[in-house]
Amino acid sequence: MLSDGADKQNGAEATGRPERPRPRPPGYFEGESITRRRAFEGAVHGLGGLAAAGIVLPAVGFAVAPIFHRGKERWEAVGPPGDFVEDTYRQVVFTETEGIGDAGKTTAYVRRSSKQLDEEPGKFVAVSNRCAHLGCPVRFVEAAGNFICPCHGGVYDFQGKRIGGPPVRPLDQFQTRVRNGQVEVGPRFSVTSQLEPVRARDPGEFTGGIWEYLYPPRPSTFPPPSS
Amino acid sequence: MKLDSLIPAPLRKPAKPGQGNGARGAAPADLKTAPPERPSDAKKLADRAAEAPIDVLAWVDQRTAASGFLTGMLFRKVPKGTNWFYTLGSATLFAFIVQATTGVFLAMFYTPSTTQAYHSISHINNEVFLGQFVHGMHKWGSSLMVILIFLHMGRTFFFGAYKYPRELNWVIGVVLLILTMTMAFTGYLLPFDQRSFWASVVGININGTGPVIGPYLSDFLRAGPELGATTLSRFYAIHMLLVPGAIIALIGAHMYLVVKLGTTAPPWLKAEKPKVAAPVARLDAGANGNGAAPSS
Questions:
Q1: Which of A81, A172, A78 is nearest to A122 (CA)?
Q2: Sign of CA dihedral A24, A29, A34, A38
Q3: DSSP for B104-124, written as a single string
């Protein structure tokens, strides 16, 4: 560019005299496509952007990394198989999150799989006490045979299916296995309204059908048991 | 001139003509014959002390030109009808200052660790001198700040003070409201008792119910799939480092715009009629005896 707007306003055109040739900027050569000034402007902005990204990106990555981290699979023995029956639950407490003491413990209700309910025989069912509404602890009420949430009145049947109140899906479950003569409970998983296992979802999130896409599974959870 | 040597050079008053030691300018002729009584050192000290505050202020002002800005801000015109409702914004700011001050002192005793947080809070409440008072100010003050923000917001809305040219200040105010709610949410977990634990569980799960990004947002807040040790330190960092800085910066922008744009008059005040000369009743041309008789 040999002249800019200000020159045009204040210079030759305003006075009506013909424009005089202006001196070339330093470093000008015939056929240049970009001025020195613009080239340096671009370089300075680019380098500044690189430096800023070098500081910001690691910091952001540091903050969001836990989303993509999956902890070690954890199994905990909760008692010999003889402790559990088909027609009622036994409450067990075990550690789900390590390192925070009692706050990391959670409660499950465990029973044998029931023939009357058409469940696969010889297995153990461990129902989480975490309400599928907003995560309050539910309680199994023996007399009613239901799980009842004290916070907002969610009610679940014997298998953990929602039969009343605001919850959006059945109660979560934990994987179970028998090792060394002990029933062990493992990673959490969620279930659809038909009790099909899916990856663990947070309370308040629907499961099954299109909801599997609207509430996508998180990388920090374990794959559901194949059954 | 022992006294002058004690005062730093920039604050020293320049000698008036005729009062110097003769190095600059000549003394008046009469001084040579009858030297006036020289003031005592004590009097000079008193004079100097009396002028010291002004000297200091003038020294600062000469280098910052702050007085122009301050007089413009402090003596700006406010519209007629300005009333007590207009103090709600200042009240919110004051509530924030209380939160910031008490928060700094609570941080001196608080431990953001899952095993010690609860004990450090009960230590503050039960053993630290005035600890319960400072903790109480912080705890109840947070509710007060949220209430004041909403009152301030209501005043702005019902007085129409969000309209042109103040829309941007409304937007900044809404961001400040969200940040304040973030403060209230993250601060609630810090005592790490049953109430705060379960309230945070519920709050994080409510965040998680947002479609598509909700599950990842709650993982981000918890720093993992379950509420754990990192959640507490994460909430603590957000509560006392991240959000307060943003709030302070935005309060600055908010107040700059208030001073720059001025406040609005309350809506019940009608605009004053423009002061133009009242139209003079046209005199009849013949009435003053200069013209012809009325034609009608």
A1: A81
A2: negative
A3: HHHHTT----TTTHHHHHHHH
Domain limits for position A55: 5-66
The separation between CA A178 and the C-alpha centre of its own chain, rounded to angstroms, equals: 30
**Among A63, A66, A103, whose Cβ lies nearest the Cβ of B224?**
A66
CB-defined contacts A:B, below 8 A? 82
Domains present along chain B, CATH in parentheses: 7-12+27-63 (no CATH), 82-261 (1.20.810.10)
Signed CA dihedral, A186, A188, A192, A194: sign only: positive
Global ipTM: 0.78
Main-chain dihedrals φ then ψ at residue A108, nearest 5 degrees: -130, 150
- A109 and A89 in contact (C-beta within 8 Å)? yes
CA A21 vs CA A2, A18, A150, B295: distances in Å: 9, 10, 87, 76
Q: Is residue A224 part of a domain?
A: no
Tell me how far apart the alpha carbons of residues A40 and A87 are, in angstroms, rounded to a whole number.
79
A218 contacts B225? CB cut-off 8 A: yes
The pLDDT-based confidence of B1 (bands split at 50, 70, 90) is very low
- pTM for the model stands at 0.77
Residue A139 pairs in a beta bridge with A148
What gap in Å lies between CA B149 and CA B138, rounded to an integer? 16
Higher-confidence residue of A212 and A11: namely: A212
Closest by CA to B188, choosing from B157, B247, B250, B232, is: B232
- A221 part of a folded domain: no
* pLDDT one-digit tens code per residue, A71-80: 889 999 999 9
Q: Are A154 and A56 members of one domain?
A: no
Under an 8 A CB cutoff, do A66 and B212 touch? Answer: no
Residue in chain A nearest B203 by alpha carbon: A134
- What is the rounded CA–CA span in Å between residue B156 and residue B13? 50
Contact of A107 with chain B, judged by CB distance below 8 Å, is answered with: no
Beta-sheet strand order (sheet of A155-156): A139-141, A146-148, A155-156, A162-164
A71 vs B contacts (CB less than 8 Å): 224-225
Residues A108 and A139 occupy one common structural domain: yes
Q: What whole-number distance in Å separates Cα of residue B191 and Cα of residue B196?
A: 7
Residue A222 located in a structural domain: no
Q: Which residues contact B286 (CB under 8 A, 6 or more apart)?
A: B292, B293, B294
